[in-house]
Amino acid sequence: MLLQDRIENGFTLIELVTVIVLLSVLSVVALPRLGGLSVFEEKAFFDEVTNAVRYAQKRARSTGCNVQVSLTATSYRLRQGSSCTSATYNRNVLHPLDRTTSYSNLSFPDGLTISPASTLIFSAISEVSFFPTSAAPHVFSVGGHSFTVHEKSGLVDVN
Question: Whole-prediction pTM value?
Fold first, then answer.
C-alpha cells in the first residue's frame, strides 16, 4: 500500500482557525444582546397585566357579576363577591388556564411598577368604576408601556 493512496480524515488548521474566529466574532456581537432580557420581561409583564384587566371585563359580562381588579405598584389581583349582589369582593377569581390558582401575579420583574395604583370594578354591562376616582382618561403604565381603560365601555386599549 502506497502512502499516497491513504485518505486522511479531519479538519485542516485553516478550517479550525476559521471556526474559532467566527465563534469569537459571534460571541462578541450576539452575547451582549442576550443579556438584555429585561425588555422582554417588561413587555411580557405588561401583556400579563392588560390581559388580566381584559379578562376581568369579560368575566363581569359573562357572569353578570361585578369583578374587582386591584392594581398596586407591584401587583394585581382579580376578585368577585360571594354573590352577585355582594359589595364585598372576598372571592378570588380563578385563573382561566388551570382553574385552581387565583388570578394574580405570581412574580414581579425587578424595577417595574404599575402606575397609578387603583381599584377598578367592572359591572355586568362593562362600565367601570375607579377608586380613587380620577378624571378620564384612565391611563395605566407598566414600565415603558401604557394602556387606557375606558369608563363607559370597559374597553382596554393598549397605547
Answer: 0.73
